[in-house]
Structures are given as structure tokens and as C-alpha cells.
Amino acid sequence: MNKNVLVVVYSYTGTSLGVARLMCGQQNWTLGTVVETRPRRGAWGTWRCVLDSLLHRHPPIRYEGPAPGDFGTVVLVSPIWALQLAGPMRSFVVRERARLPDVAVVSVMGSRGAANAVAEIADLLGRTPLMATAVTAREAEDGSCAARLQAFGTAVQSSQTSQAVVRPTTLSTEAS
Ligand SMILES: Cc1cc2nc3c(=O)[nH]c(=O)nc-3n(C[C@H](O)[C@H](O)[C@H](O)COP(=O)(O)O)c2cc1C
Fold first, then answer.
1. How confident is the model at residue 164, as a pLDDT?
2. Which domain holds residue 134?
3. Which of 11, 16, 81 to mutate to test the pocket of ligand 1 (most atoms within 8 A of CB)?
């Protein structure tokens, strides 16, 4: 097991979890998960997602996984809600920011909003993520994002191994 990179995922409907598991399988990385202490259900649960984004709220969470500070890089995998970072991942970044090492970001979305999520994470951390990419839910579901995620993971791994300076990059698609 590679202890240099930790993938931390929040997923509401399971797509981001699939992406995170794929990346862990491709690179032999470790997975940690952000879990909401107040689960979302039905239409009100979905509205709460939107309100969390519009109001930039920090819903209560717990984190299940190894300590992020024990790793050289953490890859954050999260959905986009109402063009923003999903609230539970916002809560995780705020709670763990003092312990987070270099961060890379993978946004999972219908079509747009990833750039806002990366900018918010940079703002919360006070530093720019090492690199970032985005995949659409459709690309995640049909598996067509696999090659791009492999390349992204390899870039994260090599930046980790070489300690080289890697400029923030969006490797993805037309989606932003
Ligand atoms: C409340 C809500 C708001 C969303 N807003 C956006 C959005 O602004 N832009 C977008 O591209 N996708 C949006 N989506 C789609 C999700 O980002 C997409 O379905 C993602 O794959 C969900 O990931 P998950 O299955 O890991 O929860 C939204 C989904 C929900 C539930």
C-alpha cells in the first residue's frame, strides 16, 4: 500500500465515491471518507445541498480514515452543488486545514462549477492546490474518464516522488 497519497472523498449519490475508488485502484492509494452526521434524504435533503452552497454553510461531518497529516499529498474528491464545492467537503477542508499537506482536487459534476470549487479550496487553505481536474457524472458512469484519471494520478504520484514544483493545472475537458 502506498502511504504517500491519501484520497479523501465525500459523495452524496455515489458517483464521487466510484471515482475515488477507481483512482485508489489505479494507483494503489488509501481511501478516507467524509460522512455527514445528519444524513440527507429525499427532496428536503437535496434542497439542503443547494442551501449549503448558496449560504456557504459547513454541515457537521465526521471523517473515517487515516490521518491526512501522515501523507505527503491528499486528493480531495467531491461533487459540485449549485456551482460550488459540496458543503461536507467544505467542512472537511476547514476542519483539517492545519493538518493538510499538499492538496490535489477532483471535482465530479453534471457539467460546470469545478473552477469555483478549486478557488474556494485555495482560499480556505491559503495556498493553491497542486493540481486539479474535473469529470462529469456521465464520464464517471460510462468509465470514459478512466484514462484521464490515470494520467492525473500519475502526475500527482510523480510530483510526490520527485518533490518537483507542479503548477496548478486543470487536465479536464471542456468542463469547467
Ligand atoms: C443539489 C445538487 C446540486 C447540483 N449542482 C450542480 C451544479 O451546479 N453543476 C453541476 O455540474 N452539477 C451539479 N450537480 C450534479 C452533481 O455534481 C453530480 O451529479 C455529481 O456526480 C454527484 O456526485 P455524487 O454522486 O458523488 O454525490 C448537482 C447535484 C445536486 C444533488
1. 45
2. 5-162
3. 81
